[in-house]
Design brief:
- This protein is of the alpha+beta class and about 170 residues long.
- It has one domain (about 1-170): 3-Layer(aba) Sandwich (Aminopeptidase).
- The chain has helices at about 10-25, 70-75, 105-120, 135-140, and strands spanning about 1-5, 45-55, 55-65, 85-95, 120-130, 145, 150, 155-160.
- Strand 7 (about 150) and strand 8 form a beta hairpin.
Length: about 170
């Protein structure tokens, strides 16, 4: 397995396909599409880290430092949490192919992403955590805030973390 920054057109096409599988077929957040491809509205702003196995995408995560974040477009107030003069990022699109979910891929993706964010002096990370995995994110040190957003079958809890407070294997 290789963890790297997404760079090639083929890697981005695989990202769009995994994005579709995860956020349309598994978590019904977006509408069904014939091409089975979902390009994130923040794609041009996202910085993607991917996990590859034999050049096949098996996991991904990304972040975006430019506001407004997707949470803000869902009417989540993050200004009460943001500290003046500190850099922030929204962590997005954590997805792992089903057959690899019981491995350490998620932790490895998060580890690389967090090291990158800390290296860029990002202080807070915001996420929309699927309510299906809320306890997982809490164990990592994420703190819920605001109201649950989304729709039936695709509810998300806004969460944040001061990156220096991440727990467990993710500590730099």
């Amino acid at each position: 397995m290789q963890i790297k920054i997404a760079e090639t057109e083929d890697e981005f096409e695989q990202i769009h396909a995994l994005n579709y599988k995860t956020f349309v077929e598994e978590i019904p957040q977006h509408a069904i599409r014939i091409d089975k491809r979902l390009v994130d509205p923040y794609h041009s702003l996202n910085n993607y880290f991917i996990a590859l196995h034999n050049d096949k995408l098996i996991g991904m995560i990304c972040y975006n430092c430019q506001r407004p974040y997707s949470l803000e477009k869902k009417n989540v107030d993050i200004d009460s949490i943001v500290l003046e003069g500190r850099k922030n990022a929204e962590i997005r699109l954590l997805a792992v192919e089903k057959q690899f979910r019981n491995s350490k891929i998620t932790f490895k993706l998060l580890q690389v992403l967090i090291q990158d964010l800390i290296g860029k002096e990002i202080y807070l990370g915001f996420i929309s955590a699927t309510t299906r995995q809320g306890e997982f994110y809490k164990k990592l040190g994420f703190i819920p805030f605001g109201n649950i957003v989304g729709k039936e079958g695709a509810y998300y809890q806004p969460m944040y973390i001061a990156l220096k407070n991440l727990k467990g294997e993710l500590h730099p």
